[in-house]
Design goal:
single chain, elongated, mainly alpha, 8 helices
């Protein structure tokens, strides 16, 4: 028997079940709601994919591409908004593609200053991007440059930290 009751009292079954349920909830707590299975949506191509492809196609068909049009065309091919590509975003997905476009513009014969004007950046940032891409592609001289820049950055961070600790 789940609930000890005096034998001389007659209790109906529904009252007994309610008393057992009350005692059970008091001891264990409220039952947790059951989890409902909701299937995850399957990934699919963006709905405006054809629009991006058409814009890139139209730019490819133009007889003379300006550097700005070239950047716009490549960003559309990569499915990155041209505003994001030309903007200040520092997300890795954007910066790696932006750096590749910078290298392509350099290979087309544009100067660092011209590329900087198109992408709204300083010529030293353009040079840095070119070296980063070359290092990623396997150029030894560029790899050494990247290692040297990383080492200098770490040394300056340690120096600043030491100066702060000495000031305290």
């Amino acid at each position: 028997m789940l609930l000890e009751l005096p034998q001389d009292i007659a209790i109906s079954e529904p009252v007994y079940r309610a008393a057992v349920l009350f005692r059970h909830r008091k001891l264990i707590g409220k039952p947790k709601p059951r989890k409902v299975y909701v299937p995850k949506p399957k990934p699919r191509a963006p709905a405006d994919d054809h629009v991006w492809a058409f814009r890139a196609y139209r730019l490819q068909q133009s007889p003379h591409l300006t550097p700005t049009d070239y950047v716009r065309m490549r960003s559309l091919e990569l499915r990155i908004s041209p505003d994001v590509m030309l903007g200040p975003s520092r997300k890795r997905t954007v910066t790696t593609q932006r750096n590749r476009i910078i290298l392509e513009l350099r290979q087309r014969g544009l100067s660092l200053q011209q590329i900087g004007l198109v992408l709204h950046r300083d010529h030293t940032s353009i040079l840095h991007a070119i070296r980063r891409v070359e290092a990623a592609e396997g150029d030894d001289e560029a790899k050494n440059w990247v290692r040297r820049k990383n080492r200098q950055s770490l040394e300056s961070q340690h120096r600043i930290r030491a100066e702060k600790e000495a000031a305290l």
